[in-house]
Amino acid sequence: MKKLLCIGCWAVVVSCSQPPTPASVMDAKIDSLLSVMTLEEKIGQLNLPSAGQFTTGQAQNSDIAKKIEQGQVGGLFNIKSVAAIKEMQQIAVEKSRLKIPLLFGMDVIHGYESVFPIPLGLSCTWDMQAVEQSARIAAQEASADGINWTFSPMVDLARDARWGRISEGNGEDPYLASEIARAMIKGYQGDDLSAPNTILSCTKHYALYGAAEAGRDYNTVDMSRQRMYNDYFPPYKAAVEAGCGSMMASFNEIDGVPATANKWLLTEVLRSQWGFNGFVVSDYTGVSEMVDHGIGNLKEVSARALDAGLDMDMVSEGLLNTLEQSVKDGSVREAQIEEACRRILIAKYKLGLFDDPYRYCDEERAKKEIYTAENRAIARQIATQSFVLLRNEGDVLPLKKKGTIALIGPLANSSVNMAGTWSVAARHAESVSLLQGLQNAVGNEAKVIYAKGSNLDEDATLEAHATMFGKSLNRDSRSAQALQEEALRLARSADVIVAALGESAEMSGESSSRVNLEIPGTQRELLKALINTGKPVVLVLFTGRPLTLPWESEHVPAIMNVWFGGSEAGDAIADVLFGDVNPSGKLTTTFPQHVGQLPMYYAYKNTGRPLAEGKWFSKFRSNYLDVSNEPVYPFGYGLSYTTFSYGEVTLDKTETTLQDAVTASIEITNTGKRDGAEVVQLYLRDLVGSVTRPVKELKGFQKIFLKAGERKKVSFTITSNELSFYNADLKWVAEPGAFEVQIGGNSRDVKKASFVLK
Questions:
Q1: What is the pLDDT of residue 21?
Q2: Separation of alpha carbons 152 and 85, rounded Å
Q3: What is the Cα 595 distance to its own chain's centre?
Q4: What CA–CA distance (Å, rounded) separates 356 from 196?
Q5: Which residues are catalytic?
Q6: What is the pTM for the complete model shown?
Q7: Measured between alpha carbons, how far is 56 from 58 in angstroms, rounded to an integer?
Q8: Distance from C-alpha of 624 to C-alpha of 618, rounded to nearest angstrom
Q9: Which domains, and CATH codes, for the chain?
Q10: All residues at 6 or more sequence positions from 478 whose CB lies less than 8 Å from its CB, including other chains
Q11: 631-671: per-residue pLDDT in tens?
């Protein structure tokens, strides 16, 4: 019997007694297609090359086009626009033998053309509806431009600010990161993945990427499995539970085996323990990089990756070029290739690509749904929630729209730096700079004067490394002294000074590790000179990571951390600076005093020699000689233009069981003169365990809005789930004993109560 050559000729056999289920129809179609695929075509589906951007009409003559015709490509990424994507899809569905449609992926990380704050900033909203909405809009815009797959969310836990990609994640806490993972996937994938305005999510980087030794990107990771399960695994597991369609393997090794070929990680944990049913893709050249890891040649590492549970090879083409030979010599079974191929075909089926390969290629949608005024307005509003007010001595903020405002700093007038790192589809030149934002806000009511004041860094080479991808700050050739003197002349004539300082967009992000986390020296000297004018100074801090700010926290009256706020950053910053929006952001990472304290996080464990509370140094205790153990700003911290007071924690019972629950309540009062939002945070401490336990763990939060003078009771329900952890045997257990409840506006300033689990 001849094999069918066209996927449109699939036969679907179902029982006459009952209608077929969607799953049975899908499985029948996939089985039918697999039955007519050659080994080479199955391997081809596992190949994900980078297309780059083609000029319309040129794709047909490219090497990639030839591979698509030959059935050697399963998907493409780094290609943008409906016209370019449609041209590539046409080659696949009109010229290849089996007419299998392609996946089209892109790093849609924090928005598409309407760009939201960098993920670290977005996490500081503590607003899951806002997080989901940002992903929903990103999916709407990306899908309107032909994209059907995003390499997001990144859920890597990061507790070492030297690691540049901390900017792409959700901070240091597994509970919060898990909630954000669920919200992002819901936003991307919606309730119906086949809808043309949803896209397939890809959770990354699995696993432990954010724990790279020395904070150096791509570096080795070595940690206990207990820490993996309790701290680092939860966000990935939450993503699986939320239904993420794909997972990306990380660059680092785990237990001496690179994640890309780690069978325990990709099969035992991900599939067997967590029930993941999507497909796994490598990171960029992740397969071929294992040769440098030293575990084999390209043929050997490709076979190991497939055997471990990898389904798709990004860029390396190790699977494409070696698997056929590996089948011949018996090191790989064809059934393994078929299973990987099946997972990718299923994803394409769920996206509706077999029904309509051009469902994401609607030119009218692209004209109407991308970078709309509505989307940009939402991006602006969400950005205002991400900013964290770190200091406001003397109520310098909010500013008044009158007099003369001196805007000083290398980041004050740089549209291209507003969106931050991994904003590949952003209209950088159209992003709103801080200078534009202030001018838009004051109109004719006040005068805004501007001077650059300094370069990003005195070291021209470092600045070049930190301003890549078209995000130049147009380095000024004048001396540091000349730049500063110009700025001081303007500053002395102003009523208030706004200093726009910190990192450039690419000073954090991938391959942007730093050992010095201070504001660059030339900028700090400028800031000191501005302080010495005696004028009120507001530091608008741009950064993609926690910085060490001990001097700034003592000497600068007002500090607003604005991260990188997205395409509407300038207007959003102005909204908050002038008090049109009351800041409500709370830190999701700890800000250390010194880089030598890293890694630093709130959920640490006591040693057998803990330092007494309130102490700096005690001999033979766990501390430093030269710096206290404390951070400059703790996890969960953030001020408002109003003030909130916390009552005492009340519990509905002081004893409970595994089958019961405890309700913890507290009254919050807005004691200031402005309406505002507050993030009420619940922490628990397991006082005695079979293994050592953290001094506190976030287990709940509520973002509430209170009018001036308003009081509200906030309650949390504590069940056995909140009390459970992975013990020494990696069993999920809640152990009897005493627990401490801590509720407050940050991880340091809390009210306490206790109960016993019987």
A1: 83
A2: 20
A3: 22
A4: 10
A5: 283
A6: 0.96
A7: 6
A8: 9
A9: 644-757 (2.60.40.10)
A10: none
A11: 999 999 999 999 999 999 999 999 999 999 999 999 999 99
